[in-house]
Every structure is written in C-alpha cells, then in structure tokens.
Amino acid sequence: MIALAEKYGFDKALEIISRKLNYAIDGQAVTVAERKKFRDDQRAAKQQLEEWKRNVANEVEGKVKESAAEIEFGRALKAAHETGDYDGVARALGKKDWNELQGDYIARLADPNHQRLTELERKLQEKERAEEEQRKQYEQRERQAQQQRAILQYKQGVAAEMEGSDVGPLRALAKNPDVVNMVYSIRADHYQASGVEMPLRQVLVSKLPGTDITLQTLLKGWHSQLSEAFKDEVKAAVAAATPEPEKPKGKTAPAPKVQPSASRRMIEDREFVKSGAAALEEAFRADAQREAEERRKGNSHAGS
To answer: Which among 82, 117, 201, 211 would be 20 to 30 A from 157, CA to CA?
Structure first.
C-alpha cells in the first residue's frame, strides 16, 4: 500500500487495492461492489422519477398556455349565449350573424362527407387515447420490473452476507427465503428513513416493519414451536433407529427387525425440521456465549 501510494498517490492506490478485492469507492467509504450498485440503481431510479415529474409539469404548463386562447373564446361564447346575443355567438364562431351560422350548419348536415369525417375523427381520437394509455402502462410495468430485478439482486447479496456472517441465527438461516425477505424489509425500512445500511447484528434485534416484534424474538418463537410440535415424532424416530443390544453368544440370535417403511418415511420427512431446529438451537447458543464473552471482556477492561 505504501509503495503504491508513493508511486500513484493515496487515492489512486486505494482505488487499485479496492478493485482487486472486488470493492468500490463510494464517496469517502469503501463498500462491497454489489451494495454500491444497488444504491446507484436507487439513485438512478429517483433521478428518473424527478425528471419524469419535471417533464409532466412542463407539458402541463405548455398545455395551459396553448389553451389560453381557447379559454378566452369559450368565455366570449358563453357570455353571448347567456345574454341571448345569438349574432354574437355566430360572430364568435367566425360567421357574420346567426342566419349565416344556421345555413352553414344545415349544409353540413346535408353533406354525407361531413358525417364520415366526424366518425373518422372520433375513431382517431379513441385510437390515440388507447395508444397513450398502453404507453403509460408499458412504462409503468418496465419501472416495476426494473425495481424488482434490483431488489432480487440485493436479496441475493443479503443471503451471501448472512451465510458468511458471525451472527449465528442469521448464518444458520441464510438459505431460508422468508428470513432473507425479513432481513431485507428491516434494512429497506431503515435505509429509507436514514439513508444508511443497517448491520446484520442490529437487524437481528430490530423490529419487523409494522410490528412490535424483533426478528430475534420471532426466530426464537419459531424454534420453540417447532421443537414442541415435533417432540414426540423425534423421540419415536430416534427410538426406531436405535439398534437392539446384541444377544449373548451361544444362543440363536433372533432375526433382525425390519423397520417399517412408514417409520423410514417419517424419519426422512422430519429430517429437515430436525436439522433446522438443531441449527437454530446451536446458533442461539453460540450467539449467547459470544455476547457473554464480550460482556466479560468489557467488565475486565472496566476493572483494570
């Protein structure tokens, strides 16, 4: 590091080392590249949304200016109608008087081309409205799909981080999609409020969004419920799998007892639950021992 700093300068040396370790420079901090990409995607999505808002505001402002003359025309037409000035209505519509306006209207009704033109205009307007609605729906679906892809990629990173973590319960449940989703929800809720990513150890003792229950309390409840629910089945499976003691030599040994297929299926069906409960129990035990060790060290330092 010192040699690189002397050759390229500190900032360039830090960038070179970070790239080799698959890290990226995010402001003044070095973070995992996948997390930086997720935050960059969030910032890009926010910028796109702000740009879309500005475009909509500019479009609305332009429509208002374009409609100013039409609004004034409508006001003049309404005022003439309310006062009974039908010649004024005709003049507002570009005719000399009411009689000329009536003659134009009758001529239009008698012209079949006018009816066809009116129908074509109506269909064209309906087609334009339908195309505009389809365009808006497509853009909305694309934004949602992009957001879902970014969330999925981030959750995969969360699962990998859990698997390599020193937080026992989360490491044991790194392949459980429900637990990964809960970790994501807690982190996302905290990030939206603070703009800072919460560490996994803090995630474990944080409340799930919209509840008063911490993730640790929920996982301990799962462990207790599963252990109680399958207590009898586990005992029966262990007893069925335990071999009988050997008979003394010199006597005819009985034929080996054949395990029923139902017992074998029961053992296989419970294997996942047993391993999950054991992993949780071991994880919570290791976590408690680590916390006790940290408290002991803290008390020792305080005493010295």
So the answer is: 211
Asked whether 120 and 130 are in contact (CB, 8 A), the reply is: no
Q: Which amino acid is at 53?
A: K
Picking from 36-45, 89-98, 220-229, which range would have the lowest pLDDT averaged per residue? Answer: 36-45
Which DSSP state fits 211? S
> For residue 98, with 0-12 CB atoms within 10 Å meaning exposed, 13-18 middle and 19 or more buried, which class applies?
middle
Distance CA 93, CA 114 (A): 18
Sorted by where each begins, the domain ranges of the chain are: 215-241+260-304
**Euclidean distance between CA atoms 216 and 223, whole angstroms:** 11
| Cα first-last separation, the chain | 36
Buried b (16+ CB within 10 A) or exposed e, 16-43: eebeeeebbebeeebbbbbbbbbbebbe
Single-letter amino acid code for the residue at 126: E
- The DSSP annotation for 244-298 comes to PPPPPTTSPPPPPPPPPHHHHHHHHHHHHHHHHHHHHHHHHHHHHHHHHHHHHHH
Whole-angstrom Cα distance, residue 135 to residue 131?
6
* pLDDT number for residue 119: 80
Global pTM reads 0.43
pLDDT-derived band at 189 (thresholds 50, 70, 90) equals: very high
CA angle, residues 54, 124, 133, in degrees to nearest 5: 40
For 113, 287, 296, 301, the CA distances from 290, given in Å and listed in that order, are 89, 5, 10, 17
CA gap 22, 31 in Å, rounded: 9
143-167: average pLDDT: 91
